[in-house]
Amino acid sequence: MLKIAPSILAADPLNLEADTRRLRDAGCDWFHVDVMDAHFVPNLSFGPEIVRALRRRYPEMPLDVHLMMDNPESYIDCFAEAGATGITIHAEIPGDVAEVLRAIRAAGCYAGLSLKPDTPAEAAMPYLSLMDLCLIMTVEPGFGGQELRLDTLPKLRALREEGFTGLIEADGGLKLRNLPLLIERGLDVAVIGTGLFRTEDPAEKIRAMRALALPG
Ligand code: DX5
Ligand code: ZN
Fold this sequence. Notes:
Blueprint: E1 3-6, H1 16-25, E2 31-36, H2 48-57, E3 63-68, H3 76-82, E4 86-90, H4 97-106, E5 110-115, E6 133-137, H5 154-161, E7 167-171, H6 179-183, E8 189-192, H7 194-197, H8 202-212
Parallel strand pairs: 1-8, 2-3, 3-4, 4-5, 5-6, 6-7, 7-8
Helix pairs in contact: 2-3
Residues 7, 9-10, 34, 139, 141-146, 171-174, 191-195 line the site of D-xylitol-5-phosphate (DX5).
């Protein structure tokens, strides 16, 4: 079943508890936490204390932490200790991707690898056995509210054709209207920011998104 992972980057920072409770009550599957270091991407967002607070408030909710950082290797243990369920790093980091993916699993989290829009699917191929999830960025990372880039969609199928058996996740510009394009290419997890935090009825939106993934 398609998993819906609201990106808390799109939440109202002054009402994070109310906004996340609203989406938890609306039936989302995960919370996606976009961590940005103002260097790897031109924005600065959350630290591990937000993950700790989310874990305390929602003990059962999977926390899908997306590290858009140059040096994620220095932060694996602190995000794992804060309560991350999974940690995703980028294939474009200067460090040793295989080593960081191993460190994420050693810390007890599922390991994800993310590809920026201009990074080809081939960049993930050396790491398929080390990753539990592949996050396809469908916008240039850094800001919510952007338009999905259609040229990123072929990567979903390319991963499956190369034998990747983990979860395929997409992040950026996902809406009810374009979700079918990703579902038909094998999407497992949809990261949705403004499309869920800025809607009157998130429960209805989540139901409609899930219905798109039902057979027939
Ligand atoms: C970009 C961010 C956004 C966010 C999703 O780095 O990661 O993609 O999560 O925001 P929307 O759904 O508004 O594009
Ligand atoms: Zn993200």
